[in-house]
Amino acid sequence: MTLAHLRAGVIGTGFIGPVHIEAIKRIGAQVTAVCGSTKSAQATATKWGIGEVYGDYDYQALCKSPNVDVVHITSPNKEHVEQSLAALAAGKHVICEKPLGMDTAETARLAEAAAAADRVFAVNYMCRFFPGVLQMRELVQSGKLGEIIHVQGHFFQDWLLKETDFNWRLLASEGGKLRAVGDIGTHWIDTVSFILGARVDSVFAALETFHKTRLRPQGPVQTFAKSDPATMTRYDVETEDLASVLLRFDNGVHANAAVSQVAAGWKCSLYVGVYGTEGSVQWDLQQPNEIVLGRRDEPNQILQRGSAGFLEDVAHFTDYPAGHPEGFPDSHKMHCRAVYEHIAAGGKGPVLFATAADGHREVELCEAILASSESERWVNVR
Fold first, then answer.
1. What three-state secondary structure class fits 8?
2. Which of 18, 223, 274, 284 is the most buried (most CB within 10 A)?
């Protein structure tokens, strides 16, 4: 089977849904169906040339379509588990947005169903597929940095800086009790876990909500869209704006991360610094095409994607020559490539993407972070 034979149905037409559609098309697979509100689904289908339209959020019908092999779930967090279970029950492969679910009770149920199904299930922690991250992983796994001592970094955004900024992720009922950590902090943690080849054992966290109340529009609003304050109403905020997290990994590595969605000037900065006995390596999503190698007794180096020292180990997940930038959309493309190639190979070969078990583990981690902040102590991840 080739990628061109695989057909995808996408549930959700908000910010991230079209990102998935574009990525699927770019790897040469087909997008045959889309699901969302009737108006939005039809508009998305018209724009992207998609034949089957399932309005009124009829995801069950999309999952049962004989013209869909892979279901992409890009809906709000509270819908992920039930929609994933429906797709698995219909015999489909699944790519689900993160986090996998709202709590570990439901994600455990999904992880069990995914393990029992003869289908590929992936969670879209696509930051694994930036060439810089893959190159950092190779540097760690090959021992070129020596024994890893610690990791530090951040994930900073500013799109929720103002009290008038609104998105469904702000609501605990829609996105879960953790917002900044659940939405972007888990990307940082998954990326570091992937680089290290290790899992988090315990955490110590402090969560802060700067805006105790915010303003929200009368109706729904697209991600990153702005609203008129005169038409908005005030509500109490139950989710965090920022967090500081200490992590201990099962291989003895210590890490610290700062997470914020109210960091003025930072649009989407996932920064990771890995420090070993023989050297260090740094990378930032906002400058994704280079990594910085640090040495104590030698000059530091800036390596550019596609050039010497930053090519061989990531060649399958980078398509353009050095100096031709690859970024956010390309990471989704490469994630889709990894998953779809695994499907086409009958589920054989290496699994670089996050699985349902990984997604469940991330929700376990979120619950430990929340418990740590509430108890002001170290908490073991179950």
1. strand
2. 274
Could you give the CA distance from residue 313 to residue 67 in angstroms, rounded to a whole number? 36
19, 331 Cβ separation under 8 angstroms: no
* Model pLDDT for residues 267-301, shown as the tens digit of each residue: 999 999 999 999 999 999 999 999 999 999 999 99
Homologous superfamily of 3-119: NAD(P)-binding Rossmann-like Domain (3.40.50.720)
82 to each of 21, 255, 352, how far by Cα in Å?
21, 34, 25
**Domain(s) of CATH 3.40.50.720: residues in the chain:** 3-119
**Percentage above 90 pLDDT, the chain:** 92
**The pTM of the whole model exceeds 0.90:** yes
- Angle at Cα 35 formed by Cα 29 and Cα 36, nearest 5°? 140
Where does CATH 3.30.360.10 sit in the chain? 127-322+360-375
pLDDT of the residue at 315:
86
Which residues lie closer than 8 Å to 240 by C-beta, 6 or more apart?
Answer: 178, 179, 180, 181, 207, 208, 209
Q: 371-381 pLDDT, tens per residue?
A: 999 999 999 99
- Class of domain 127-322+360-375 (CATH, top level): alpha beta
